[in-house]
Amino acid sequence: MEISKSNNECSSPSAGEEFKDMMKGVTKFLMMVIFLGTIILWIMMPTVTYRNKWLPYMRIKFGASTYFGATGTTLFMYMFPMMAVACLGCVYLHFNKRKSLHPIDRERKGVWSALRRPMLVKGPLGIVSVTEIMFLAMFVALLLWIFITYLRNNFATITPQSAAAHGQTLWQAKLDSAALRIGLIGNICLAFLFLPVARGSSLLPAVGLTSESSIKYHIWLGHMVMTIFTVHGLCYIICWASMHELSQMITWETEDISNLAGEIALLAGLAMWATTYPPIRRRFFEVFFYTHYLYIVFMLFFVLHVGISFSFIAFPGFYIFMVDRFLRFLQSRDNIRLLSARILPSNTIELTFSKNPRLVYSPTSIMFVNIPSVSKLQWHPFTITSSSKLEPEKLSVVIKSEGKWSTKLYQTLSSSDQIDRLAVSVEGPYGPASTDFLRHEALVMVSGGSGITPFISVIRDLIATSQNQKYKIPKITLICAFKNSSEICMLDLVLPLSGLQTELSDINIKIEVFITREKEAGSDATTEKIKTLWFKPSISDQSISSILGPNSWLWLGAILSSSFLIFMIIIGIITRYYIYPIDHNTNKIYSWTSKTIIYILVISVSIMATSSAAMLWNKRKYGNVENKQVQNVDVPSSTSSPVSWGYNSLREIESSPQESLVQCTNLHFGERPNLKKLLLDVEGSSVGVLVCGPKKMRQEVAKLCSSGLAENLHFESISFSW
């Protein structure tokens, strides 16, 4: 997440702002040029020109060195450019101030809004925009181009005589060649597979994406990778079986491709792939979760299978993921100061944590939470409901009791008033680098059940923004669908628990609440209490903060660049004084397996050393301030308060922080929201529409926004489901 101190914006850009804009423009241009250069390399890779002209030249330039040997070719051609893009992305995000659009800017993105409209609503891909379809089509076209060009050029060189020289018939030789090329295009997919799940990576936010909204790309790529690699393996098995050489399956060549390592990697991938089947994932989520740790086995044996030289084509994304994963591990070692737990009658809990005031996050951000007393291994993502503008020293998440983990947590907290402390670890927050909801004249948020939680953060953020007279806040319509009237109490979370001076009268908001399974308010709606538990601090507790301090993007760039530089220096020394005297750059004498293990160990040590050093430096500089902040928090006694949303109490509230919220709320019992009417009735030249809830609700809203019935409806491409 971006950490920054709030500054007053000036009407005219200062010299500092002009410098930042210049740096943003330069870094973005360099990122684009380098990335397009890498794409051109992939396009040219299967061609005769690349094989006969480009590759020999680059082998002379990069592969003849006594410091890197043959590995230097792929290291500098494919690994180095993507690492440079990631580092430049960190610089870009550091200078990219979180800005909101002025009303005058609302009409400038007409083409971009059209490209973001949903194109496909139902189907295996889910809700997909025009832009996503375009990029998916271009990616598939790239894969087909590489595969077809490889086959055409290679099949032209296969003759009955050349096949016989290798003990094969013509069709066996062609099948062998096709199997190899299928594996090559699988590597292209693998190069992107880990980028969507690198939560703290600079590449996604630099192009306006988040890890949360990009999970579907990881799913698409995962299916493509496993389909391609499975076909790759089956083709070789068929070829070996036809040649009566199935013993090839258990060979482990130390100076060439290791077939056994490839099969182990494939089996690990198939195990992960099988647990992604929706019924298995829904019913046995823990099986899916723990099985996915086989990615370590998959990647290790993939590299052992193809050798370190060739794996550098697909390795940059995994390298970035390794850095992100180790930083998450370091952050998860801290015990986080839990201030309070607000227990609602609807089997819902709001946990409020202490937060470093320097930590700034955008609405709709998420955070992963681990509570050892519930489960030592499980991490669950939850939407942040607080606003860093409104509550600079606190952060809240809402947890609905639905699965085993959340149910156990709810029972633990709701059954006792004597819990003094609850040990908690977190990873995050993760979210968009910025949000531009202010570009719309009106904002419609449609939620089902606990899907209201991301919109609570949006409303709180807009309340805070309304204090700045420079911005015109869009009209807000919140449409909530609940099963039972007891769930209405989730609206109590719209305003923070603390006694902050927050007034909904500062914004124009209308809330339409639909209770679908009751004709009138339940008898318990006016009698149940909201219980608040306050926890005592421990000397080991810390407030939530960025693992890399205020300048987190610069530190991430420093880790990526320095770890890669240290890796190259160490490998250069090892190659020059140990491997080269044995192999002499032939790549045929020194064991591939040993070389691969050395590279993996050096990469791991470089990442761990630089990441740990950066974390310790920032903790030493800012840790004392955070600890004082945690220890100085007063702990009130646990309290209970009546629910504000009983049917009879709607007219009884005379003076409370919830009064204005109740006044702008309409309750509808025994009916579902007529989304078509509600959306089409919203006035404004630009209406942003967000939805979070059941699959059918999301599809219905996306269909309405893409139907053309109202050109002013703009579907916000935000995902809230991991």
UniProtKB/TrEMBL annotation:
Enzyme Commission number(s) from the entry: 1.16.1.7
Cofactor(s) for this UniProt protein: FAD
Checking SUPFAM superfamilies in the record gives: Ferredoxin reductase-like, C-terminal NADP-linked domain (SSF52343), Riboflavin synthase domain-like (SSF63380)
What are the alphabetically sorted keywords of the record? Electron transport, FAD, Flavoprotein, Heme, Ion transport, Iron, Membrane, Metal-binding, NAD, Oxidoreductase, Transmembrane, Transmembrane helix, Transport
For this protein, the record's InterPro entries field holds:
FAD-bd_8 (IPR013112), FAD-bd_FR_type (IPR017927), Fe3_Rdtase_TM_dom (IPR013130), Fe_red_NAD-bd_6 (IPR013121), FNR_nucleotide-bd (IPR039261), RBOH/FRE (IPR050369), Riboflavin_synthase-like_b-brl (IPR017938)
Has keyword rRNA-binding?
no
Spell out the protein name for this chain.
ferric-chelate reductase (NADH)
* Organism encoding this protein: Noccaea caerulescens
